[in-house]
């Protein structure tokens, strides 16, 4: 007979099937002697397994496992927090850059008014500030990244 | 308490006070530039001057937030047993908050408290420096800390079994 349900029988014996599959297995087993016999064997095995004493894990193993799970959970939380913080900081950094433009505009305007001397365009000062900032940041990132790699904090 | 509150709580009082002082000083400076000359003449400022002043006041909040973030870097680096003075200086002097971004990328993980005496143990430690209790998975051969998922010790190459755990 086609449509045997051998692969579902261990799950049926363990009571792990959903209602739809359980109904399908029950209907098939009624009409298929081979599967009915296999189902009886699986049920006997499942009942024998249920009767076995369950070994209790040692308190030390339990504590260690719990501690490890807690540590992994904390690591995952830390990663999520780090990602959110980095996203915020990148937006914050660019906003600060915009503020620097405003401040330069203000300071240079005041200086030009008070000294009555040319103080240069805001754009030139701003680009100089940006380039100096990025060069400093790149140098720091290189040095710190190398140090972190040596310490094993970066892959 | 949410995570943001927990993290904000570690910012030292000195940094919070400094942030408030910076903001007030910045506000006073901006007020003296945009509103001062007009107010001293006994006139009401023009709406454009008010607009500039309020814009400046808003940007001052960013500067105050920057000071708070630098304070956070100081306290966080300290609790992670990193060089907090160096990282704070980098946070201040690398512009556009890039120093703080670098800190978040490169900071060490939080030290693990020893299960016996609660002394914090840094990432490089497999055993508690106070009582000798194992705090992390360690190589059975060289006793160096090994990471979960490693099948061989990254320090001496010894094959690691499932039992080589702290």
Provide a compact summary of the structure:
The complex is a heterodimer of chains A (155) and B (166). With 155 residues, chain A is mainly α.
Give structural notes:
- The complex is a heterodimer of chains A (155) and B (166).
- Chain A has 155 residues and is an all-alpha fold.
- Chain A has helices at residues 9-14, 19-31, 33-51, 59-115, 122-150.
- Chain A has a domain at 6-51.
- In chain A, 80% of the residues lie in helices and 0% in strands.
- In chain A, helix 2 (19-31) crosses helix 3 (33-51) and helix 4 runs antiparallel to helix 5.
- Chain B folds into two domains: 3-108, no CATH class; 110-166, no CATH class.
- Chain B has helices spanning 3-8, 13-34, 36-40, 47-79, 84-93, 98-106, and strands at 112-113, 120-121.
- Chain B has a two-stranded antiparallel ribbon.
- In chain B, helix 2 (13-34) runs antiparallel to helix 4 and helix 5 packs antiparallel against helix 6 (98-106).
- The A-B interface holds A 63-64, 67-68, 71-72, 74-75, 77-78, 81-82, 85-86, 89-90, 92-97, 99-100, 102-103, 106, 110, 129, 132-134, 136-137, 140-141, 144-145, 148, 151-154 and B 3, 7, 33, 55-56, 59, 62-63, 65-66, 69, 90, 93-102, 104-106, 108-110, 112, 115, 123-124, 148, 154, 165-166.
The multimeric state of the shown protein is heterodimer
Shape label of chain B: elongated
Structural class of chain B: mainly alpha
Overall average pLDDT of chain B: 84
Side by side, the strands of the main sheet of chain B go 1-2
Number of strands of chain A: 0
- How far the N terminus sits from the C terminus of chain B, by CA atoms, comes to 31 Å
Count every helix of chain B, treating DSSP H or I runs of 4 or more residues as helices.
Answer: 6
Overall residue-averaged pLDDT value of chain A: 85
Number of domains of chain B: 2
% residues in beta strands of chain B:
under 5%
Poorly predicted regions of chain A are none
The ordered string of helix (H) and strand (E) elements of chain A is HHHHH
Question: Largest chain interface and its two residue counts?
Answer: A-B, 43 and 36 residues
Straight-line distance between termini of chain A? 57 Å
SS-based class of chain A: mainly alpha
